[in-house]
Amino acid sequence: MLAVHLESGRVELRRAALPRVPEHFARIRLIAAGICSTDLELQRGYYGFRGTPGHEFVGQVSEANDPAWIGRRVAGEINLACGKCDWCARGLGRHCPQRSVLGIVKHPGAFREFLTLPMRNLHRVPQSIPDEHAVFIEPVAAACEILDQVKIAKGERIGVLGDGKLGLLVAQVLHAHGANVNLFGRHRHKLAIADRAGISTETIGKMLPLREYPMVVDATGSPEGLRSAISMAIPRGIVIMKSTVHGLVPIDTAPAIVNEITLVGSRCGRFEPAIGLLASKKIRVDDLISETFPLDRAAEAFARAATKGILKVVLRPPAGSAR
Amino acid sequence: MLAVHLESGRVELRRAALPRVPEHFARIRLIAAGICSTDLELQRGYYGFRGTPGHEFVGQVSEANDPAWIGRRVAGEINLACGKCDWCARGLGRHCPQRSVLGIVKHPGAFREFLTLPMRNLHRVPQSIPDEHAVFIEPVAAACEILDQVKIAKGERIGVLGDGKLGLLVAQVLHAHGANVNLFGRHRHKLAIADRAGISTETIGKMLPLREYPMVVDATGSPEGLRSAISMAIPRGIVIMKSTVHGLVPIDTAPAIVNEITLVGSRCGRFEPAIGLLASKKIRVDDLISETFPLDRAAEAFARAATKGILKVVLRPPAGSAR
Description:
Chain A is of the alpha/beta class. Chain A has ten helices and 19 strands. Helices cover 25% and strands 31% of the residues of chain A.
């Protein structure tokens, strides 16, 4: 089968053997996968990654101990937890210290024709979610994680900083939840996507509003984002740190302390609410897909995904490729 | 009267007129005041401060519209709020955007023979708290603020980083609350103070514990403190940012996000619980007083307070000075 291999910043195609299927695992034939900003960070050297990346996918189960899964169209949670520790017992396998992470830490990812995951990580994708939307289940779940971490009242004013893929999904998830969202970004054509979803947007000029929002989400992916978010929050406000930045981020802690801001780190989320939102079309993702590439043009797809102004790039196995 | 004047890093003594007493204010004759790390930061140029610093004090009311206050021994909350805005209405005058702050922002501080504060800022100091302990009401209140911001169960494991004045008070307050506190510091003689209060302590070596505490308080006052605190917290743990650092602090946001740490900025607190703890002797502060200087030797006192290994330096008006 074909598999993408990432090493020292280079994206290559390799022929690989079909992956083994350990007990309680399933083998999944890839239908489509999305390139995430984290994949681009892996390419830049984040985590010293070497191997097959990819963690946003939809596929069809081709082999599994439990015959009920065979043939099912699935998405999969990306953290492979031990299932035995206290974290796992509390339903927080996403924080299991023994975990590997699909396409990120010690488990080859989804940018290959067949991948494997434990069956307990799988979620059936309902008919109403087309393949290219299903690729967004994982990032929408990450956006939904905010709702699991902090209480957000209907009508609460939330500033979302950043009009990239993550910012657009976060803004839509919070808007669908009933919050009064204001999305701040630099790109008219990206903000227009949020506009069409009924979200109020603002192009970032020289000044950002100061001490105005009870909650601000930093989804900029830039080192300045967090500082701006802190200054936009009212005293005792909450800043959600949604985008990882490689390396050290200089923040001015004094205003965070003087104004008693709470900063909440936020990562992966449960898939159930994300599947619900995508199935009910409460989140618009069509506009977020910039381009689709066949898997064997992954290098080109990565370059495209890293291009300014581009949103989601989707990979699909080349037509007719079998094993 | 004598007043300390701080400007461009220099601590001088000046003769000043008795301060006016606006309506609803009281004039307070200083009994004793403490030099706080914030005062040393003001000296270093934090906030572009120029004027009389000092915000930890105990004094005796010498003039007030309300005769019930006259002659009372008092401590005073440091934020002078407008009393009219939404923040004030919610009992959060500490965050009133119009506020001035005693000895820090637009209101001359306590390092003078007479100071003024609104009567509503005053708290009677009970007999059972001697003068030099009363100087600690403000910093103990700041430590107590943590209990108002986050829920702490009895027996909860908390790591406190930093064995300075603030760290020693925070550790004692959390210990008195029933938490299982571990104080980390670099100075044996300072840690010994916590030991005597029944708190377990550890000298910081090359390594700090990793991912071990559900809650960590950074009271180091150093730029590295926050990074260490983040790495000591378990996933989904809480880090309290208790010490301000002047300038930008480089933090590695990736572990905070991956482990979904919550960082809570924490500043001033209510005086009531602090007075209660000091009155009941649940907090030991005698050991925290390094030296006492007369007010007219303030420059020397500041230099002493900035000396490594020194804890609280107390100022007292020179004996026999009247106006």
